[in-house]
Amino acid sequence: MKKNMKIGPLDCTVVGSFEEETKPKLVVLLCHGFGAGGDDLVPIAEEVLGASESCRDKVTFIMPAAPLALDSFGGFEGRAWWLINMQKLAEMTGTNDFKELQSAVPPGIIEAREMLNETLIEIFSTTGCSWNQLIIGGFSQGAMLTADTVLNSTENPLALIQWSGTLICEDQWKEKITAHKGLRVLQSHGAIDPVLPFSGAESLRDLFANHECDVNFLEFHGVHTIPMDGLKCLKELMEEAVS
């Protein structure tokens, strides 16, 4: 069952049950990357649920669309959680110096986090699920947003998914992560990613690992994408949670 609905302030695509009468055992919330459409990750939900008989009637996927439409910014399509200076990112890639990216707090990320938190409050209210029945994560910019959301919360989700994400807000995340011992993280990154280089993923992995988080890090020979092993591990997490 797939439907579009507003949850909190965000337009979302829901795959699975979202009624109080048929509450799921697990919610999986996935946020798309910069420039993608709001339904970009919907095929993942359909594929993973289709491959897991034990999860089909017990897991609900929720995929919010980012609030910013990029068509008003010229030369871009899709949506964004916050605006990115693509020229500056290209310069960093050219010099292979990403210290500024890692230390920066992107303008707009706080507002995006607040909207996602409002959406989470409504999800929990409607489904009866709590943080320990939530897998939350995303791809690229969506991974960054969900990491920031989790680290600024007082709770650990069942798991945090980081597909092709990177380290940002470094000082703040280092301070906040001390309260998230035991956080389970599934992270994947392409070794030849030309958008967010592998070194940034290693820095993110080390931040989690050095603060007693449970990190499953999947390196693959590929670019800025989600590997099949990343979907396989998500499916395994889901099946473990509903068994």
Description of the structure:
With 243 residues, the protein is an alpha/beta fold. It has one domain: Alpha/Beta hydrolase fold, catalytic domain (Rossmann fold, 3-Layer(aba) Sandwich), CATH 3.40.50. Helix content is 36%, strand content 22%. The strands form 2 sheets. The protein has an 8-stranded mixed beta sheet, sandwiched between helices. A two-stranded antiparallel ribbon has the order 5-6. The chain is globular and about 50 Å long. The model has no long low-confidence stretch (mean pLDDT 92).
Radius of gyration: 17 Å
Q: Tell me, what is the CATH class?
A: Alpha Beta
Structural class: alpha/beta
Q: What is the string of SSEs from the N terminus onward?
A: EEEHEEEHHHEHEHEHEH
Number of helices: 8
What's the CATH architecture?
A: 3-Layer(aba) Sandwich
Can you tell me the CATH topology? Rossmann fold
**Could you give me the name of the CATH homologous superfamily?**
Alpha/Beta hydrolase fold, catalytic domain
What is the average per-residue confidence, as pLDDT, rounded to a whole number? 92
Q: What does the main sheet amount to?
A: 8 strands, mixed
Share in helix: 25-40%
Report the β-strand fraction as a percent range.
15-25%
